[in-house]
């Protein structure tokens, strides 16, 4: 039986059920192939799905953390899909086996006096367990939920049960989200949690910078801010444990160079979103491009995601 803890484990799952939430969003209910209990998880966690086409993708768990039999994910079919969301929509019918790894939580719900949740599109998925947790604990909360149209916004029936705590804001009839109203008058000890497309998160960060305490805002991004390799420069990477020193060309990642040199590092998404390839930095200043580390973790320079991040200087010393 799988152990009930928050550490990552490799899992053989089966698609127990699937349903279309909107024309472009499918929900999958996943269970262990052998019927065993799944690892426990907390709101904000995600699971990595290792697809038969060779791709790995991370999706937020949006079901009930107390249900140890089933994990639920919801996947948007991306128009510019590189094979991940399209494969899940087209190639994972009920009964299909899928290898997975998890859970991992880079977006935990921290204690607060109140919560203001802001979701854009498929960014509603990590918000759902957070909302349930806030409701159960009696912590005051509101949700501002935006989407292209009402028809594209998943989980409407579930969220409608919360009454006026939830504001649906479809762009085709209501325009852009009214952040000035939603984020005005921050209460002491309150927190803002947001997930959605980059323009929304950038706007929220800009607004909160001048009106909310520095540690009040928590965001989860879909994609990392990848480095502009056209303007990158080669760097030297020293590996403290092996004694190797490797040159990382401007057009390659640290992870790629280490892998070619036979240095085994756990990795998954290779896009700076999952946190699997985190490495301790002993010397040098990382240039961070992931979406996993908090601002304080970035400033400390003690670790980095070597799949996308580089160096501000010419060299780094890593604990490898």
UniProtKB/TrEMBL annotation:
GO terms for molecular function: oxidoreductase activity. InterPro entries: 2Fe-2S_ferredoxin-like_sf (IPR036010), 2Fe-2S_ferredoxin-type (IPR001041), 2Fe2S_fd_BS (IPR006058), Beta-grasp_dom_sf (IPR012675), FAD-bd_FR_type (IPR017927), FNR_nucleotide-bd (IPR039261), MRET (IPR050415), OxRdtase_FAD/NAD-bd (IPR001433). Residues 8-110 form the FAD-binding FR-type domain. The keyword Protein biosynthesis does not apply. Keywords: 2Fe-2S, Flavoprotein, Iron, Iron-sulfur, Metal-binding, Oxidoreductase. It is an enzyme of class 1 (oxidoreductase). Residues 233-320 form the 2Fe-2S ferredoxin-type domain. Its cofactor is FAD. Residues 84-104 are annotated as: Disordered. Its EC number is 1.-.-.-. The keyword Iron-sulfur applies. Gene3D superfamilies: 3.10.20.30, Nucleotide-binding domain of ferredoxin-NADP reductase (FNR) module, Translation factors. This is PDR/VanB family oxidoreductase. It comes from Rhodococcus jostii.
């Amino acid at each position: 039986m799988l152990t009930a803890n928050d550490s990552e484990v490799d899992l053989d799952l089966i698609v127990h059920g699937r349903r279309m939430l909107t024309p472009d969003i499918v929900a999958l209910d996943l269970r262990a192939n052998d019927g065993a209990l799944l690892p426990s998880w907390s709101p904000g966690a995600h699971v990595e799905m290792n697809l038969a086409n060779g791709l790995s993708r991370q999706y937020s768990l949006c079901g009930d953390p107390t249900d140890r039999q089933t994990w639920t994910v919801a996947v948007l079919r991306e128009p510019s899909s590189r094979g991940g969301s399209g494969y899940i929509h087209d190639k994972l019918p009920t009964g299909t086996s899928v290898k997975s790894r998890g859970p991992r939580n880079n977006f935990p719900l921290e204690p607060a006096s109140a919560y203001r949740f802001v979701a854009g599109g498929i960014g509603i998925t990590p918000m759902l367990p957070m909302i349930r947790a806030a409701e159960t604990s009696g912590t005051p909360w509101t949700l501002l939920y935006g989407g292209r149209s009402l028809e594209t916004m998943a989980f409407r029936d579930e969220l409608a049960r919360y009454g006026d705590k939830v504001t649906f804001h479809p762009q085709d009839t209501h325009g852009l989200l009214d952040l000035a109203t939603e984020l005005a008058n921050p209460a002491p000890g309150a927190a803002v949690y947001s997930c959605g497309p980059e323009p929304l998160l950038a706007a929220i960060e800009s607004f909160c910078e001048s009106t909310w305490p520095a540690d009040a805002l928590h965001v989860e991004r879909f994609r990392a801010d990848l480095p502009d390799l056209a303007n990158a420069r080669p760097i030297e990477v020293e590996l403290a444990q092996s004694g190797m020193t490797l040159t990382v060309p401007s057009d390659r990642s640290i992870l790629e160079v280490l892998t070619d040199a036979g240095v085994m590092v756990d990795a998954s998404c290779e896009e700076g979103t999952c946190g699997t390839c985190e490495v301790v930095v002993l010397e040098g200043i990382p240039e961070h491009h992931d979406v996993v580390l908090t601002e304080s973790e970035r400033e400390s320079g003690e670790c980095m995601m070597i799949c996308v991040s580089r160096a501000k200087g010419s060299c780094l010393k890593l604990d490898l």
